[in-house]
Design goal:
Elements (H helix, E strand, L loop, with lengths): L1 H12 L1 H19 L4 H9 L8 H26 L11 H9 L3 H26 L3 H6 L3 H13 L1 H4 L3 H19 L2 E2 L6 E2 L13 H20 L9 H6 L1 H10 L1 H16 L5 H14 L4 H5 L7 H24 L5 H12 L6 H4 L3 H30 L6 H20 L2 H20 L4 H24 L7 H28 L1
Antiparallel strand pairs: 1-2
Length: 500
């Protein structure tokens, strides 16, 4: 194992593989900054280029590119409130709020440092899981995956505002998200549901235009109404100086960073859940790290922990998602399914051979994730002063550029003009939610997890009837879900008791 580990590093550091990795990082850097394109789309576009490459070179190129997309997607999310990727939407809530307060540098410093720590956790999990992965992955059947989705939905309680009224609004917003997840064809019967007799809605609502509209358009309207720059009247020096303060924040909240990194790894390891789930569950957990009800109110208003949690989870999920992909040929998400195509193009078969005969190649993937993230974080830190300066540009100059980014992000997800209309509709909904004080995060969580929960519930009932409710892991996850729902209420009660 140790020989293969060192050999994997030497394979990645060969000049040809290293150059391909740098090329992949360059592509991934700019793809992450542009909203809507996303890692999966770019991986699919780059697959034809690997035909004549050696396996290590090909994976250095593909994985080097994919590893950095989420990191640079955080930059667009924080600076402009436009999700760089569907998986980087959770970071907008506090990251962009910090940018509007003149703390863009601190938010970006925290995001980059937590992303790097998360990537290391994911890579370490991949390296350590190679010998023990089989029983771990096989523990989870459809009942366990359904309950995991329910645990995710339970975080709606944490993402809602304080008080009974805030909780009701949060659960209603989550219910709307669940309803929107049902738009499209019934996955079992194939019957069209809530499609308004339009062919576009048969495949359901795509996450990218919904997220871009829900988060970006309200920020654009706010920028127009205020008539100032994103950072308002904050002095330019303060905006860029906070970068290392953000890095310190990660180390001040070290245990939270590690926990959120482990959440991301676990969600990545579980096939079918995806990166958006990892970020939102990590964000929900970060809100629970607040010790008092008053502290919790700061989330969504610019609490740095709301940047650290999603940042760590977003990158750690990649190492986790590679585990079932390499060990069983079961992709951990859409991007891993495309990467699986790369395995077959190169004549590699995921499974026992990747853990024995091709072990150095497997460890080269671990090293690619680590090295690509080191290079990206260093490059981002060198550019941060220039990037944070954008938050001081006057709104009337910035709004047209951000609007173009919004429309590009919406259109490129499916190359459909209907996606732009969906973005505008959800932009109007998002704006009214902000004005009325309704939380947007529960709606997104309901939309992301609705389809997953429905599919796994149907499979569980069809396969096991209701006997699956007694499975040990299902019972443990149910207890966790109840605990997650009750935690904010208990916290609020303790806070009232302490002050009363």
């Amino acid at each position: 194992m140790l020989d293969a580990f060192i050999q994997g590093l030497l394979l990645v550091l060969q000049w040809k593989a290293f150059v391909f990795m740098l090329a992949g990082i360059f592509v991934g850097f700019w793809v992450g900054l542009l909203p809507g394109l996303g890692g999966a789309t770019t991986l699919a576009l780059m697959l034809p280029f690997i035909y004549n490459m050696q396996p290590v070179e090909a994976f250095a190129f593909l994985l080097g590119m994919h590893s950095v997309v989420a990191t640079t997607g955080d930059i667009t999310s924080i600076l402009f409130g436009v999700p760089g990727e569907a998986t980087t939407a959770a970071i907008i809530l506090d990251g962009h709020a910090m940018a509007k307060r003149g703390e863009a540098g601190r938010a970006l410093g925290a995001a980059l440092a937590s992303s790097f720590v998360g990537a290391l956790i994911g890579a370490a999990a991949l390296a350590l899981a190679i010998p023990i992965v089989r029983p771990l992955v096989l523990t989870f059947g459809s009942p366990e995956l359904f309950m995991l989705a329910i645990v995710g939905l339970a975080f709606i309680a944490s993402l809602s505002a304080q008080g009974a009224r805030g909780m009701v609004r949060g659960f209603l917003a989550g219910g709307l998200g669940l309803f929107l997840a049902m738009v499209g064809q019934d996955p079992q019967a194939g019957v069209a549901r809530y499609t308004l007799d339009t062919l576009y809605l048969w495949q359901g609502l795509d996450l990218v235009p919904v997220l871009v509209g829900l988060f970006a358009i309200p920020e654009i309207i706010d920028l127009v109404v205020r008539g100032t720059s994103i950072a308002g009247n904050a002095p330019a020096g303060r905006i860029s100086k906070g970068v290392f303060e953000g890095v310190k924040d990660v180390f001040r909240n070290w245990w939270l960073t590690v926990r959120c990194g482990l959440i991301g790894t676990f969600i990545g390891l579980t096939p079918g859940l995806g990166g958006a789930v990892a970020q939102w569950m990590a964000y929900g957990h970060a809100t629970q790290s607040a010790r008092t009800a008053e502290e919790r109110k700061g989330f969504g208003q610019g609490d740095v922990r709301g940047v650290i949690g999603p940042g760590a989870a977003c990158n750690s999920k990649e190492g986790g998602a590679l585990i079932p992909t390499i060990a069983f040929g079961v992709p951990g998400g859409a991007s891993m399914a495309i990467l699986l195509g790369g395995f077959f193009l190169l004549g590699l078969v995921p499974g026992p051979d990747m853990l024995t005969k091709h072990l150095p190649v497997t460890f080269s993937l671990v090293w690619t994730i680590v090295i690509a993230n080191i290079i990206t974080v260093v490059a981002c830190f060198l550019l941060l002063n220039r990037l944070t300066a954008l938050t001081n540009v006057q709104g009337h100059l910035l709004v047209p550029v951000v609007l173009v980014l919004v429309f590009i992000g919406s259109y490129t997800s499916n190359s459909s003009y209907a996606d732009i209309l969906v973005s505008l509709i959800f932009g109007a909904l998002g704006y009214f939610m902000v004005v009325a004080g309704w939380p947007r995060a529960p709606l997104v969580l309901g939309l992301v997890l609705g389809k997953i929960a429905e599919n796994y519930l149907y499979i569980s009932v069809a396969r096991y009837d209701f006997a699956w409710l007694g499975r040990p892991v299902v019972v443990v996850l149910l207890i966790i879900a109840v605990g997650v729902i009750l935690f904010p209420a208990v916290q609020a009660w303790r806070s009232r008791r302490a002050h009363g």
